[in-house]
Design brief:
Elements (H helix, E strand, L loop, with lengths): L1 H18 L14 H14 L4 H4 L5 H7 L1 H9 L11 E8 L6 H14 L3 E5 L9 H6 L5 E6 L14 E6 L4 E2 L10 E8 L4 E8 L11 H15 L5 E7 L10 H12 L2 E3 L13 E6 L7 E4 L10 E6 L9 E5 L7 H9 L2 H4 L5 H19 L3 E5 L11 H10 L8 H6 L4 H9 L1
Parallel strand pairs: 1-2, 7-8
Antiparallel strand pairs: 1-12, 2-4, 3-4, 5-6, 6-7, 8-10, 9-10, 11-12, 13-14
């Protein structure tokens, strides 16, 4: 049956294409100019030589289209041709640029694009202020990229130099809504991209150095970063944390470094940078992912940089999100039972008309009668279920509610009451004891 169907389509396409007249590539309706046109074509072909295989598709598109109907129909009827699955890798560049507004620094970004072709830049220390004009942002944005700037919210002097994060995203792209908890010890921004077959969230962090007026004590940073990881770790798809942490990870004996890495272990995270990212041989810029993710990050560095930080390039493998295997589940449509008909059948059953005398026989008759009546009025239905999204059985409603409340501003007076009552109270006790 399928053979007949495809054969009919094949012959229909063949006859239809043969009816279309082929127009000549050189129009001879003007004979006075034909010789000039011929000489010009010869000279042009000598100047722009192209391999003959290319002319099969480019120089004679109409001849290919109309003189090969069988080939075209064969391609159309091929059942193993699939849609383009889209890119299978995403290249992310992490860079402390120390002012993207400087012409030399924005020009250096174009050089990095030519040499490494990244899909996403995660920039720190953009030095962009809320008062920066749109024209200035446009001048520092490379072609075919969109710039998302997140200036630091200065509480005091707006002329303070430094800080600010941003994303440069290669066009076209699809950005999804995202949110972040309120953090005071470091700057954080995020972007969620809808890829062809999956999603990914990238968190960009800038922690000011100890010399900055925005610097916070290490204990405050660790508390805030712990809260941040509690939020980021519940991302329902792949994610990556990157940025300038201004922390000397090349010295694992440092007390702050050891506590920082301990947080990674607690949240099942892995820090991948193991080479200097600063011109003084320090590891300051980090790339962090979940330890059991499928991104398979591959890192490299480039020692030509517009600032004292080296750009870190992370190549991520983008695979389709694996869904759970289809499962069979059975159910009865109890709400569709006709109560009147069910009672009529029950009254006429031997269980009512001739009930057994012994207790054992009565139990057997009871089970048999009700089972047969259920099978008659609400038979068992078995269906194959396919999930449309990955399952996160550990992300229980209490965790979801705690995640939402932790992202609320801490100035809300109702937050302690909500966290101290209901199903979240035990969760809060655990978090405070740890």
């Amino acid at each position: 049956m399928h053979f007949v169907y495809y054969s009919c389509i094949f012959f229909f396409l063949s006859s239809f294409l043969h009816r279309s007249p082929m127009s000549s590539s050189c129009n001879h309706s003007h004979p006075t100019h034909s010789s000039l046109h011929h000489i010009a074509c010869q000279q042009h072909s000598q100047l722009t030589h192209t391999p003959s295989a290319t002319f099969l598709l480019i120089d004679h598109p109409r001849a290919f289209r109309f003189h090969s109907p069988s080939l075209l129909a064969f391609l159309l009827l091929s059942v193993d041709i699939e849609l383009n699955p889209g890119p299978t890798a995403l290249t992310v560049c992490t860079l402390n640029i120390r002012s993207i507004l400087r012409p030399l620094h924005s020009a250096a970004l174009s050089d990095l694009i030519d040499s490494h072709n990244p899909d996403l830049f995660c920039l720190t220390e953009t030095w962009i202020k809320p008062t920066t004009s749109s024209a200035e942002l446009l001048n520092c944005t490379p072609p075919n990229y969109s710039f998302t700037s997140i200036p630091r919210k200065h509480s005091g002097n707006n002329s303070t130099t430094g800080s600010g994060t941003g994303f440069l995203i290669r066009e076209p792209f699809t950005e999804l809504p995202t949110r972040l908890p309120e953090i005071s010890a470091f700057e954080s921004s995020s972007i969620t991209l809808q890829l062809s077959r999956s999603k990914i969230s990238v968190f960009n962090i800038y922690r000011p150095p100890s010399s900055s007026p925005f610097s916070k004590p290490n204990s405050v940073f660790l508390d805030d970063f712990n809260s941040f990881l509690s939020f980021a770790a519940t991302t329902p798809h792949e994610f990556m944390i990157t940025g300038d942490f201004n922390m000397h990870l090349h010295n694992p004996t440092d007390h702050l470094t050891s506590q920082f890495l301990s947080l990674h272990s607690s949240f099942n995270l892995t820090q991948h940078v193991n080479f200097p990212t600063h011109n003084k041989s320090h590891i300051l810029d980090l790339v962090i992912t979940s330890s059991d993710c499928s991104l398979a990050p591959s890192l490299s560095s480039f020692h030509c940089s517009p600032s004292d930080h080296f750009p870190v390039f992370t190549r991520l493998s983008i695979n389709a999100t694996r869904l759970p295997a289809p499962t069979l589940h059975s159910f009865r449509r109890l709400q569709s039972i006709d109560i009147g008909s069910f009672l009529t059948d029950l009254k006429s059953s031997p269980l009512i008309t001739h009930p057994p005398k012994s207790l054992g026989s009565l139990l057997i008759a009871y089970n048999t009668t009700l089972s047969s009546l259920l099978n008659k009025h609400a038979p068992i239905i078995t269906k194959l279920t396919r999930r449309q999204s990955p399952s996160n059985p550990w992300f229980i409603p209490a965790l979801r509610a705690y995640n939402l409340l932790s992202a609320m501003p801490k100035t809300s007076g109702n937050t302690p009451t909500l966290l101290s009552t209901g199903p979240l109270s035990s969760l809060c006790k655990i978090s405070t004891t740890t």
